[in-house]
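pasting input
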Amino acid sequence: MAEDTATERPQTDTRSYDRLVIRFAGDSGDGMQLAGSRFTDASALFGNDLATLPSFPAEIRAPAGTLPGVSSFQVQIADFDILTAGDAPDCLVAMNPAALKKNLKDLRDGGTLIINRDAFDERNLAKAGFDTNPLEDGTLKGYRVIEVPMDELTTLAVKDTGVSGRDVLRSKNFFALGLMAWLFSRPTQPTLDWIDKKFARNPAVAAANAAAFKAGFNFGETTEATRTTFEVKPATLPEGTYTNITGNTALAWGLIAASQKSGLPLFYGTYPITPASDILHELSRHKNFGVRTLQAEDEIAGIGTAIGAAFAGSLAVTGSSGPGIALKSEAISLAFMLELPLLVINVQRGGPSTGLPTKPEQSDLLFSLYGRHGESPIPVLAIASASDAFYMAIEAARIAVKYMTPVLLLSDNYIANGSEPWKLPNLDSIPEIEVEFAKHPNGPDGKFLPYMRDFDTFSRPWAVPGTPGLEHRVGGLEKEAITGNVSYDPANHQLMVDSRAWKVANIANDVPEVEVEGDEDAELLVLGWGSTYGANRAAARRARLEGVKVATAHLRYLNPLPRNLGDVLRRFPKVLIPELNTGQLLKHLRSEYLIDATGLNKVMGEPFKVAEITAKIMEMTK
Amino acid sequence: MTLSYTRADFQTDQEVRWCPGCGDYTILASVQQFLAGLGRPREEFVFVSGIGCSSRFPYYMNTYGMHSIHGRAPAIATGIAATRPDLSVWVITGDGDALSIGGNHLIHALRRNVNIKILLFNNQIYGLTKGQYSPTSEMGKTTKSSPFGSIDHPFNPVSLALGAEATFVARTLDMDRNLTQAVLQKAYEHEGTSFIEIYQNCNVFNDKAFIQLTGKEERVHNRIDLEHGKPIVFDEGRKAVIMRDGQATIVDAASVDPKAILVHDETRPDPSIAFALSRLSHGPFGPTPLGVFRNVSRPTYESEMSRQLEEAKEKRGPGDLGKLIRSLGTWTVDEAGAITEN
């Protein structure tokens, strides 16, 4: 089924859809992220497939009521396996004029608007830049508008619960959530249970939130605000146990899994930066797994501590976003030179510089591939979706320790903060990561040769301090092959540069080939990497419904590239590469394979809309 | 396990390549001698350095070692010490490495009290890059990069370390092997970050910078040897240090009541008096204190980290990955597509 054809199935009061897009928007203090994620969880338990896209300002508390202070949360719910958080919302909740102003342009024609009427006073209208009241001046013609005095009704609902003062209106997001639960036929019990659990220590707040939630639901049911509600039937998801997960959480859990599978203690040395900090937050909670987290004094110290931990025998990880990775660049080259295993996570955001720190972009690809001094071609992997982060963390760790090399693992803000249902894996089916520390001298007359390479992997031994007889020195100066002694010999430098590059290039023989999905005889291949995974596949689905033959492929390995990629690219007359940058993979593939490809590029701080990619596919296959 | 080592056991087969006459040779010999005397297994030592002449040090130590990048050795050593409290981790650095490019890492290692031993070879010049002024060069110093004299006010490394509330701070001289051995012993025994400034002569680019403390005549008048529990007197008893108006002040010993002479106490919890002593000199150009300024006890970073891990394991049991991935709430879809919240 296609995501752009929200097919109506007529019924008496409740209209049934195959998929709907809902967006909660309000001031960043209005609790919209919370309302959105509760709606999401209730939908997951109801059985819908779903995907979410939170969007929040870079400022922690921009002035209340202003456009920069608007925070939103979008979720797509569907009765089939969904791939993105949706393009245009079918329903928009606007808690104040600024939220309306910022989000109205996205609402589809004829879409439903839920408006907190109480917030539309002169002051708020002025702050949002409205000259006249959009509720009265015809701006909203063509939409189904449900105006609700949410402040007033929330105040009434919570009056006997014991909250007072400013706390009263804090519950209005639950009022909105209750109304949405009714409007979209969501079960209410999961939310009420969650409120009880979450606010167990503060019974008055729990009671107020529950009262506001019920009041919102009842308001929908008993008033004549609207006679029509919506429903999206459960999806037929494969049998299994599911949880709803964001990319940052999945990544943190993947690192813990890699630690368990390798038997190496996990060390995470880092410096706080949006949007990577949640990985630190999550890991720092799990000390009973033996996880050591270190919040360093700066980005360089973050990776420095990780390099130390790697030398000393930990599964060492550092994480950041673009600007922080730039600061770590010298140290990444050191790890490459030392040939120590290290994971470097880059949760990409809009750049350059501070750029758009809370928005997704894929603009660090060339930086990852080429952005270091000297010849330092390190492996680069990219996560495709929130749940994929779990597996890619394990894979990156496997490559790092097997090949004794730093590995860059790319995520982005869409993957990091967006969520999707994840069918939990059988943990026993995930292979162990084999690690063998050097225990005995490997050279003649009992000498230890720290740069003696393994015949198959070209990897060097990992000898950790504390091992008798293997005392050795590593360093940033060029090393003599085999012995590791400092060497300025010209031929040796050539050999070592070639050896390090060859070691990494050879990883192509140890990773899966790229798979082509869809029509093998298609005229067009849509090739993606990173978070465009869902949008590319959804766009291809839609195009196929229009009778177009199209294939898709997705890259999780960007260095080295899958060994069959050149053949795949040459098999299709046309190649389309959608990227949230100005054409970085395109440029790289042209230089690697001399193939022509077409880019679809956007840097607007938001993911692709499926319709944008579909339109490009249609244009290219006309 | 106590092993019987000689200095040779800590030497590598690599040719030592400092300039002939460099103070680094003496320090290397002192450290090798000291470690041999400990009898601790050689494989338990890790030497980490940054960039600079002194930072070649690990290549000459037959232990585990890393010659890393400019200024970052304290961060790398922190990662080693934090994950492996069983090791003895040493940082070898210089005035440019530790106080210029790596200043941030130095002060944060000191404040965290990571169990690492930092030896700062201070020669008050950039040697490896051939003679530019360093963050400890005196004002007005004429060098290749300051032909009209340096206009940078220098750091006093001991004051800096005390300002960062380092738990162990000392100063010694490359040529004074006895003092160096004594200071190394105390630094090694100290649990936490030990900071030792070593005045080190660069005979090529800044020769005789420390002549006031090493010259036969001069040292008699200028060495203030700090000894724990003893009144601070020097210059063969002619001079003494007292506290006056909140400052450490040098006076004629005969001119004050002996009870007024400051008694050195390296264990004072508050670093203020140690700091006052460090202000007696602004570089080795007159009377200069040598020895241990401060030696106090505070929990180390890694002991606190290990404690939190142990407590978490005790309280929540060892990590269970299966439980973790179910911790945000799950639902189950059965064969027929029916959904149950778990």
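fyi Chain A has four domains: 14-232, 244-429, 436-511, 516-620.
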